[in-house]
Each structure stands twice: as structure tokens, then as C-alpha cells.
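ok so I'm stuck.
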Amino acid sequence: MPFASAKTAKRFGDLPTLRQHPPDSVRLLRSIARVHQDILYICEISEQGTFYGSYELAAYLGYSPLDIHNMGENGVLTVVHPDDQAKLTVRLAGFDSDEIVETQYRMRHSGGDWRWFYSRETVVERYADGSPRQILGVARDITRLRRAVELVPENKKLASALQQERELTRLKNDFMTTVSHELRTPLTVIMSSSEMLDRYFDQLSPVRRKQCLDLIRAQIQDMRDLLDTMALFTRYQQCEPQSVDLQHLCQNLVEEYLSPSRNHGVRIQLTAEGDLSCLLLDPNLVYHILANLLSNAIKYSLPEGEVLFLVWRSGADVFFQISDQGIGIPEDDLNHIFDTFYRADNVGTSVGKGLGLKIVRDYVALHGGDVVVESIEGQGSTFTVRLPAGG
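replied:
not stuck anymore, here's the structure
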């Protein structure tokens, strides 16, 4: 219950102290307090700090009028939360006008727990110097409301966690379905080719035998690639930064993709700007981010095309930008290309599982960075990655 001063509060319901009120007015106020659902009170600001509260105070706080009387010099101010006592005293500055002053504060229940109250007060009488003499107030127990408000963020977290768990379950089911499908195709080819070799080996020409064996090897390689990609989803679950010479890492990666078996005649132009040594990054995550983007840029480029690979520092961040002049991404697909197993409509029969960009997004997120894409179908795509990097 708010107090206008830290002086002692007279006994709860001690009507003779309210000398300024005629008996009929006091009885009327007391009757209103009894039937009102909130706590109605008058606080008289004087050296004695008189106070009148409704009889609901005892029910709300578990104190009897005698308990309040025995609280000593500071009265029920002693059960106001220490962090709120100054707030109740300072609020007097708000009584310079006749506007209603609103306050929220805590009071300790007799059982030991804290109850929240919301009060609205206004001055009903002033001294000659204009300072408040009597304040009329009404207070409401808002403990349940405050607790409900405090639980909202927690409930949102639980709801978000539940939604994430549902989404994870759905993705796992989709993942298993897709992997089963992707494995079934090469296994079928391997089975048919091996059966042909087993049944008709003597009848097949050496060239035809080699074709069957090459087909089996190719399908086995596809299965290995799929299994390697699947392993990436579970291998790296956290970012473990260490000092990295980024220019050296990028140069090695480019040389790896310049081999004829991997670049299909596509040129890669690497441009590194600024000091890229001794940066705090996870080299494994960075490698797979860039490898997936470079692989896609080469795969979807036109023969004898060119891929631009830019790396630069800006403040505490490092940026990577990989651009190609290939088939581009249809506008309707741009919002989904980072989804698991998603492939754009225009990729045709090119090899891919729709997992590479999902890995890119997840590994970038582990670093606390972001990745954006710009693309025009038929003209090419540009992926820009930002990663926080110390050093």
C-alpha cells in the first residue's frame, strides 16, 4: 500500500485520526471500502502520516489490523519491497498537479511471497503552500497478471522449441525419404549392370564390359558423395574458431577446383583484398561453405565460363562473394533454395541432392553470419557471405 511519507502509519481503520473528515463522510468512505473489490484508502500527509485503508488489506496481505499496528515506526512500509520503497517516496513529485498518479510496487504477504499492486492516486486536499495533504487512492492486486506477463516470453520459448522440434522431425522424415530414394536409384543401376556382367559376360564385348564397370563405379561414387553430404549434417554442430590464414585457405580451394576433372573448363578468378591472415574462424566450416558455393558456381556455369571469387575485410567482418554467369535461379525459387532437398526448376538433369546450400546456410549461422543471393535466370547468380572474424 503506498505511503506519502516514511512516518508511522496509524492503526488500520483508526478513524479518530482522520480529524478533517466529518463522521458521516468517514462512515460512507468505510462502507464504500467494504463493498469495493479494490483497496480504497486515504493517506493524510502530516508529521503523523495518518493512513486509511479498506478492510480488504488484511485479506490481500494476510495481516490483521493489529499486525499492522504492531509493525512499529514505519508501519506497513516495512513490508514494501526494498526496490520499490524509493519509488513510492519519489512519486510525491507527481502530485504537483491534480492529475492521477499511477504506481506499481510489491508488498510482502504474511506467508513470505511478494504481491504486486497497481495504484491510482490523486490529491483531494492541499496545505497552504500547495503541497499534498490528503491523497485518495485505489489499489489492485495484479500479482496474477504480472506473473502471466512474465510467463509470456517463457511460453513463447516453449512454443518455439516445440515448433522447432516438429520441424526437425519433419525434416528428418523428409531426409530419410529422399536419401532412400537417392540410394535406390544407384543401387538399381549397380544391380542391373552386375547382373548383366554375371549372365552375359562371355557374350559382351570388352567395350561393353568396360561401360558396365564404369557405370557401376560412377554410381558408387554418387553414393559416396551422398553419404559424405549426409555426414556433414552431423559432423559439425558447433563453431570452433581458430587462427586461420584465409588467403591461403581460399587459394588452396581454388587450386583444388581448377583440376580438369572438377572445373569442366570453367575459369576461377580469385581476388583477395586486405590482410586476411590470423582471422578467428572455423576452417572446416569455412571450407565447406566455400566449397559448396564454388561447386555450384562451376556446375551451373556455361562451358568455358568464368567464376569470380572475391574475399575482403570490412571492420570486424570478412566477406566472400562468388559470382557466375550461368543459368541463374528463377525468381520463384529464390526464397526456397536454402531449404533442405530443394532444387530449382531449371537445373535439369545436373547432379545434385539439394543439400549443399542447406549446409552453407547452417554453417554460416554457426559462425553468427549471414548469406544472401542475387540472381537473374539466364544471367547468373551471386552469393555473398558475411562472417564475424576476429584478428
